[in-house]
Design a protein that fits this description.
Blueprint: E1 14-18, H1 19-25, E2 33-37, H2 46-53, E3 62-67, H3 72-81, E4 87-92
Length: 100
């Protein structure tokens, strides 16, 4: 199976969805507010996803994370890739598998 190509959405300003979608659509967009639902079955790491998200054409200033279990690697990845972040919220919740 070939990887899913990135999707160019240059006018996108806000996104709420799974990490796999954020990885595909945020780079090159105007997205500055993101809610990410992290899936334990995801094939991309916190660092890989947030590195892609950091390639938004504007600073990410607002990030909500919904994680199934707490992982300190998330905070480390946020600090490394989103140094201009102004608002951070982390929730722990059991989520159904996304399958993307």
């Amino acid at each position: 199976m070939s990887p899913i190509p990135r999707i160019h959405m240059p006018k996108l300003q806000q996104l709420e969805g799974p990490a796999s979608i954020a990885f595909l659509v945020v780079p090159g967009s105007l997205t500055s507010q993101i809610t990410i639902y992290w899936d334990t079955n995801s094939t991309t790491s916190f660092s890989d996803t947030l590195s892609a998200v950091a390639r938004s054409d504007v600073n990410i200033v607002w990030l909500i994370n919904v994680v199934p279990t707490w992982d300190c690697e998330l905070l480390s990845a946020i600090a490394n890739h989103l140094p201009r972040l102004q608002q951070l919220i982390v929730y722990t919740a059991i989520l159904p598998a996304v399958g993307i």
